[in-house]
Write a structure and sequence with these properties.
- The mean pLDDT is 95.
- The termini are far apart.
- The longest helix is centred in the last third of the chain and has 19 residues.
- The chain contains 11 helices and 10 strands.
- It is of the alpha/beta class and 272 residues long.
Length: 272
């Protein structure tokens, strides 16, 4: 390991390690790109891909992000953008859960979809996208429908759960599992010009409070559909919440829901 550290020190440009040197180190020392990235960050060096982060996120904080494990439940409109941003952020491990394949009606808004991958598994597309964007990130593709019965096993060991579902009953089951695992859950929902974001910390019942009058069906998305921009906005807010939770920074969006109206550009907060 010391030889690897010596190699990285000699290759550093200031405190930055270029991607080519990270790849070279992995090949020369028989390690994975993920393992090398961990060593780089532990040394107080920074993979050059993250250099535009460091005015906001320190190298030590980047290490915390790298050591985190985030689960994304649903890889469609919200989930595709969430996975994209978590991968670029440098979250070390991502579990992606979705049983579906891409269909033509997904093309208007789902980042991971394309005309070339119609019929392809959404989690497979997520895996390939993450590997292309940031091969140091490990993405676990789980082509399975999430539910109360398999949730504890699927999400064992994750640090944060991200809700990118379109079903209220399944979302409530996810809430129950997050509570059982004592893991924070970042909720997002979209429909037309509108969306909402909330964070449920362990011991809270945010999802039950939000959906206390509606526990059936797919919510407003089924009726309103979604243009391309709504999932991008809501997913970005969710990823910001995830980053804050990992780093213990800022004020989490718990015991309240942020409602977003993009048609009138209004953001309203409901407290519980």
């Amino acid at each position: 390991m010391e030889k690897l550290r010596d190699f990285l020190r000699t290759q550093a440009d200031g405190d930055l390690i270029a991607w080519q040197q990270q790849v070279s180190a992995a090949g020369s020392f028989g390690m994975t790109l993920s393992e090398v990235e961990g060593v780089i960050l532990e040394m107080g060096l920074l993979p050059a891909r993250y250099q535009r982060n460091r005015k906001t996120i320190s190298t030590g904080q980047q290490l915390r992000i790298f050591r985190s494990h985030v689960a994304v439940i649903g890889c469609g409109g919200l989930g595709g953008y969430i996975i994209e941003e978590l991968t670029r952020l440098g979250v070390g491990r991502i579990t992606a859960v979705d049983p579906d394949v891409f269909e033509e009606h997904n093309l208007n808004r789902q980042l991971l979809s394309s005309t070339e991958n119609l019929g392809q598994s959404k989690v497979e597309a997520a895996y390939l996208r993450a590997a292309k964007l940031n091969p140091a990130v490990i993405l676990y593709p789980m082509k399975i429908a999430f539910g109360r019965l398999n949730g504890l096993e699927l999400l064992q060991g994750v640090d944060i759960i991200v809700d990118a579902l379109d079903s209220i009953p399944v979302r409530l089951e996810l809430s129950e599992v997050s509570t059982a695992l004592n893991v924070p859950m970042v909720h997002g929902a979209i429909g037309g010009w509108y969306g909402q974001v909330a964070t449920q910390l362990p011991g809270e019942e945010t999802m039950r409070k939000i959906y206390n009058r509606s526990i059936d069906g797919k919510g407003i998305e089924k009726g309103l559909g979604n243009p391309s921009f709504t999932p991008a906005v809501i997913a970005s807010l969710q990823v910001a919440e995830v980053c804050k939770l990992i780093l213990g920074m800022g004020t989490p969006l718990n015991n309240r829901t942020l409602h977003i109206n993009l048609l009138d550009m209004e953001f309203d907060e409901i407290k519980y």
